[in-house]
Amino acid sequence: MTPASPHFNLKVSEDRPLHPVTIALLGHVRDAAQQMGADFVVAGATARDIVLWHVYGIRAERATRDVDVAVCAISWTAHRELIARLEATGFFKADAKAEQSLTFEDTAVGKSAPLDLVPFGPLEAPEGTITWPKGEFAMNVLGFQEAVATALQIEIGEGLVVPVVSLPALALLKILAWRDRRTSKNTDASDLLLVLRNYHEAGNEERIWESATDLLDAYGFDLDLAAAALLGRDARQLALPTTLATVLQLLADEGTYDLLRRDMFARAVVQIFADDSDKTLAAFRDALLSPPQGQL
Fold first, then answer.
1. Does the keyword Transferase apply (predicted)?
2. If DSSP codes are grouped into helix, strand and coil, which group holds residue 230?
3. Which helix or strand (DSSP H or E) is residue 275 part of?
């Protein structure tokens, strides 16, 4: 069983608990989604923090208050019904301008928290794109189907289990998000590097020795590089054809790849480790670009 499996169960450490606001918010989202029979997954920086910090003790450079959730919706009517169910709890208020945004506030558990609720699935037109009804704003949602299909089931506190994006799916989402918003939000590249540099410590060290000895050999038994390559291999394995083709096109283009490298190393804390990080990204890319043996 791999960390990309939808049945891979994890638990937030008692020493690094989630804030009660996040637990309460996600509990309401879980309940509303279940009532409608809709699949959902915790995504974005929220997923990054839950998996890396709260489960494995790997600290991110920055914390986030925003909660990002992707929900499979058969139509915009179904998505509006989900929002209505959340508002009916009395704890959520939809943003009048940003159609994906809500604010959660329950004074019994703490301060308010923003929720981004992004739909995907049958309402995509074309595949991988949604267009918000009011503003006709188009948003890329490639990778969310994979995120749901390979989600980690994590107990986040108070007995609540929610699906959280696996690190291979998060890597794909971060590459696509970087492409779409690098000029307005330059955090996706550094988030990707954080995952690349810590994949072996996030529950994968045993896997490397058991099922990726070829990568250990290829990288001179450098565990960090072998793990980055394993992440690339895992990401390729779970990606659907359209998502994979899009990501491969981005990483195969030398100009785009160099831009991603430079964005990764833009932060001062990363520049100290630029040489090692460069090799780490290259190992990830090479594995992602390489089809498994017997496939072309």
1. yes
2. helix
3. helix 274-289
pLDDT more than 70, % of the chain: 92
Q: 3-state class of 257 per DSSP?
A: helix
| Consecutive H or E run containing 237 | helix 223-238
240: tokens are: 């659907």
How far apart are the C-alpha atoms of 137 and 216, rounded to whole Å? 45
CATH superfamily label, 9-165: Beta Polymerase, domain 2 (3.30.460.10)
Residue ranges of the domains in the chain?
Answer: 9-165, 180-289
| CA dihedral sign of residues 217, 222, 225, 230 | positive
The per-residue pLDDT for range 190-240, each reduced to its tens digit, is 999 999 999 999 999 999 999 999 999 999 999 999 999 999 999 999 999
Strands 92-94 and 101-104: antiparallel
pTM of the model: 0.93
